[in-house]
Design goal:
two-stranded antiparallel ribbon; nine-stranded parallel β-sheet; 483 residues; 31% helix; plant defense; single chain; transmembrane; alpha/beta; 17 strands; TIM Barrel; 2 domains; membrane
């Protein structure tokens, strides 16, 4: 997405101290497993969810040791990620890259280990809003990491990729696609590197954002069910935004001499809440249409019968702690809710079954915190703001599933969200006497008042911190072993 999925653990640690010819293969449907959550399922529960749904590819935004340990022996193909904030040190220090590969890749691989296929070096580092701050680090970091993989006897087994946002290229028509002028040189270097190492180009495509950000964007063009607004490009006609965007990238790659570069869709999806057009019906229509479109092997006008190598749906689970600066829908991309329950009926394959829910999820007791109907709520504003500054209240926004439950309903929703986040601590439902605990579910229609889960957060924080500190010490020239 437009934001960097930097784990909170990293921030805390910092604070504390293919060849030239296309190879036609069957596309696979994977998922992004993001962990910027308020209520986290245990990694083992998530991996069980993946296996139960026959999801064989997963993309992470970091290399959390708890998630990787849970993935050991699963056979699931994994893409681990390096946050943008680590690119600087990895670009300047081979010792740092050796450490990163050793701690986050090598030690988890081997017999009955993790099937790590890709390392995502940064996340959308060329995004326009970053103003080029990560641009100079990419190629040196790739070079250092490639050498580290070679030293670890992983060269060829683990591929380096750089997930790019679709704003890296531009055009009024797909056939005229080109990388942004300021990126042409580095993109040529990047794609040359990828090509020489048989790695695909990874791109994130979001038709929802095109619709969300442009009132003139034809809604039916965002989906796969036909449109009254097709885009004619010479003899080619585009009936959905995904194909148009994909072929714009194909044209851009062709302009720099790599028109046959294999392409992986690193992120694609549709949110279910928090904004107009973000709802269950639209998300199901988009994701199911996309899956059938990809698996039909129709390809696109510029690549007929050659669909993307793989696509990774964004995302597996809702992430209630994500930054909402891009929009309040950011916390609602999951095909499953935070507790691993399927939001809508979806088939991940042409002949497969519907999504299966997570099993053995441990919930807090069935009780909720609501506004006391006997009390005067005129002074509740500060309590409401406090609750929503800590918990997630984005479903109350215009277009959200809880937008029409009334003022008292809004207050109760905020109180309960905070109460569940505090593990139902009795004092967290006080709000100066304005709150009360109820054993009757206050959910209304599509507006769900959640009950928290007791599953603990991912382990491995201490180890993760130590290695971040090691990287920082190397970066600052302080050669002290922290082990």
């Amino acid at each position: 997405m437009a934001e960097t999925h930097l784990p909170s653990t990293t921030l805390l640690c910092i604070f504390v101290l293919f060849g030239s010819a296309l190879v036609v293969v069957e596309s696979a449907i994977g998922v992004n497993w993001g962990t910027v959550s308020l209520h986290k399922l245990s990694p083992s529960t998530v991996v069980d969810l993946l296996r139960e749904n026959n999801i064989k590819k997963v993309k992470l935004f970091d290399a959390d040791p708890g998630a990787l340990r849970a993935l050991m022996g699963s056979g699931i193909e994994v893409m681990v990620g390096i946050p943008n904030e680590l690119l600087a040190v990895l670009s300047t220090s081979t010792t740092a890259s050796d450490l990163w590969v050793g701690q986050n890749v090598s030690r988890f691989m081997g017999k009955a280990g993790v099937n790590i296929k890709y390392i995502a070096v940064g996340n959308e580092p060329f995004l326009t809003t970053y103003s080029g701050q990560f641009q100079s680090y990419i190629i040196p970091a790739l070079m250092n990491l490639q050498q580290s993989l070679a030293r670890g006897n992983l060269e060829g087994t683990v591929k380096l990729v750089v997930p790019c946002n679709a704003d890296a290229y531009e055009s009024s028509l797909p056939s005229q696609g080109a990388f942004r002028p300021e990126l042409t040189q580095i993109m040529t270097q990047l794609v040359s590197f990828l090509n020489s190492n048989d790695s695909p180009f990874v791109v994130n495509i979001y038709p929802f954002l095109s619709l969300y950000g442009n009132t003139d964007f034809p809604q039916d063009y965002a989906f796969f069910e036909g449109t009254n607004h097709p885009v004619a490009d010479g003899t080619n006609v585009y009936y959905n935004a995904f194909d148009g965007n994909f072929d714009t990238l194909v044209a851009a790659l062709s302009k720099i001499g790599y028109g046959q570069m294999p392409i992986v869709i690193g992120e694609v999806g549709w949110p279910t809440d928090g904004a107009i057009s973000a709802n269950l019906t639209a998300a199901k229509a988009f994701n199911q249409g996309l899956i059938y479109h990809i698996l039909s092997n129709k390809g696109t006008p510029l690549r007929p019968a050659v669909p993307p190598m793989d696509i990774y749906l964004f995302s597996l689970l809702d992430e209630g702690a994500k930054n909402v600066l891009p929009g309040t829908f950011e916390r609602h991309w999951g095909i499953f809710s935070f507790d691993g329950q399927a939001k809508y009926q979806l088939k991940l394959g042409l002949g497969g079954g519907l999504l299966k829910n997570a099993k053995d999820v441990q919930y807090l007791p069935s009780r909720w915190c609501v506004a006391d109907p006997s009390r005067d709520l005129s002074g509740v504003a500060n309590h409401f703001r406090l609750a929503c500054s800590v918990a997630d209240c984005t479903t109350l926004n215009y277009g959200g599933s809880c937008n029409e439950i009334g003022a008292k309903g809004n207050i109760s929703y905020a109180f309960n969200s905070y109460y569940q986040l505090q593990k139902q601590n009795s004092q967290s439902c006080d709000f100066d006497g304005l709150g009360m605990v109820t054993f009757l579910d206050p959910s209304v229609g599509d507006c769900r008042f959640l009950v928290g889960v007791t599953d603990s957060n991912s382990p491995g924080f201490g180890l993760y911190c130590r290695w971040v500190i090691v990287w920082l010490m190397i970066y600052w020239g302080v050669w002290i072993l922290v082990m």
